[in-house]
């Protein structure tokens, strides 16, 4: 028994890569974090570029790790997706975002929309319709103020099922937007058939706006495409006045990015809104 431990670990090392072990470790920590609700949402304002007013917020999840540090989603969403934990985590995010949105309404703030990121699995086997209906009922958040951000990979998975699900979400009054638009495999034909409301231009195109002629042309084309299909268009990752000026000149409807604010903890939002208004 004394020398069995190294044997066991050699056994595991021979079967599993270091990466697989690391993944298992992060997944078990995530499972525990979920049980203890060690997650928090930060909210990033979305600005109407014509009225220059805050119209909504995107909810972005952070993990509060064992040391109390906030871990960005880029470090754990993939692991959560791989383990299926994204379904319960996504449900928590949706519930917390709507609860917070309702709290702002009750506090007398303007009617802000709240945008929530969705993973493909929530759509595939997550019972998304039941979850959304349940969350809207339990929080009392108006369906018309909830916006689901979907990636092109969600929209392309199982056309029939996805189309039907999107249609039912629309019937519930929920808004739908396509996140990271331009980075996936969007085709004009699917855009026309999908019941979406908004395109969100990926920040990779916004970054060099005004510096790169190609990126400027792409951004302008996406905005025109969106408007032709009667969709609203938002740009993410807006950091400079120069980028905003280009977006404005192209007729982009909304903008989001560090130029306006980093994602903020919920308790900072009322002050942020007040300050902007004055
Ligand atoms: P995303 O949906 O594309 O969100 C935008 C990301 O860009 C956020 O990073 C945001 O903090 C960051 N960002 C905002 N403004 C700027 C800017 O002006 N410049 C730059 N360089 N970056 C900016 P974050 O919060 O780290 O989130 C990363 C990704 O994690 C998100 O990308 C989204 O795909 C995913 N994610 C976040 N929360 C959730 C969630 O609740 N569920 C799921 N499934 N995914 C989530
Ligand atoms: Ca997003
Ligand atoms: Ca995204
Ligand atoms: Ca993005």
Supply database-style keywords.
binds calcium ion; Diguanylate cyclase (GGDEF)-like protein/PAS domain S-box-containing protein; binds ligand C2E; alpha/beta; eight-stranded mixed barrel; 10 strands; 278 residues; 13 helices
Your description of this structure?
By secondary structure, the chain is α/β, with parallel strands linked by helices. It has helices at 4-15, 18-35, 77-83, 86-106, 120-124, 128-139, 152-155, 159-172, 188-193, 203-206, 213-228, 241-249, 269-277, and strands at 39-48, 53-64, 70-71, 113-117, 146-150, 175-181, 198-201, 232-235, 254-255, 264-265. Helix 4 (86-106) packs parallel to helix 6 (128-139) and helix 6 (128-139) packs parallel to helix 8. The protein binds ligand C2E and calcium ion (3 copies). One calcium ion binds at residues 180, 202-203, 236.
Oligomer: single chain
- Basic shape: globular
How many strand elements? Answer: 10
Helix fraction, binned, reads 40-55%
Q: Main sheet, how many strands, which sense, barrel?
A: 8 strands, mixed, barrel
Q: What string gives the helices and strands in order?
A: HHEEEHHEHHEHHEHEHHEHEEH
Uncertain runs are none
Strand order of the largest sheet: 1-2-4-5-6-7-8-9
Q: Whole-Å distance between the termini?
A: 72 Å
Strand content: 15-25%
What structural class is derived from the secondary structure elements? alpha/beta
Tell me, rounded to a whole number, the average pLDDT.
91
What hetero molecules are in the model?
ligand C2E, calcium ion
Radius of gyration: 21 Å
Distinct helical segment count: 13
Domain EAL: 23-277
Protein name: Diguanylate cyclase (GGDEF)-like protein/PAS domain S-box-containing protein
């Amino acid at each position: 028994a004394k020398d069995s431990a190294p044997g066991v670990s050699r056994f595991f090392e021979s079967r599993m890569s270091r990466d697989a072990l690391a993944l298992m470790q992060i997944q078990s920590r995530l499972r525990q974090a979920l049980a203890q609700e060690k997650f928090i949402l930060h909210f990033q304002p979305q600005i109407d570029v014509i009225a220059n007013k805050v119209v909504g917020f995107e909810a972005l999840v952070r993990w509060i790790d064992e040391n109390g540090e906030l871990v960005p989603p880029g470090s754990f969403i993939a692991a959560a997706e791989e383990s299926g934990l994204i379904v319960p985590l996504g449900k928590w995010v949706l519930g917390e975002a709507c609860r917070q949105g309702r709290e702002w309404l009750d506090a007398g703030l303007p009617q802000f929309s709240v945008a929530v990121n969705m993973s493909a699995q929530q759509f595939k086997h997550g019972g998304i319709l039941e979850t959304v209906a349940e969350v809207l009922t339990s929080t009392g958040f108006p369906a018309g103020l909830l916006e689901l951000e979907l990636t092109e990979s969600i929209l392309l998975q199982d056309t029939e099922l996805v189309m039907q699900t999107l249609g039912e979400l629309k019937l519930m009054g929920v808004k739908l937007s396509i996140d990271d638009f331009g980075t996936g495999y969007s085709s004009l034909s699917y855009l026309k058939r999908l019941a979406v409301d908004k395109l969100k231009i990926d920040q990779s195109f916004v970054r060099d706006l005004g510096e790169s002629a190609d990126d400027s042309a792409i951004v302008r084309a996406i905005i025109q495409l969106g408007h032709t299909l009667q969709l609203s268009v938002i740009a993410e990752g807006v950091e400079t006045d120069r980028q905003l000026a280009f977006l404005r000149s192209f007729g982009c409807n909304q903008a989001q990015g560090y130029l306006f604010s980093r994602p903020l903890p919920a308790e900072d939002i009322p002050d942020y809104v007040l300050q902007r208004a004055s």
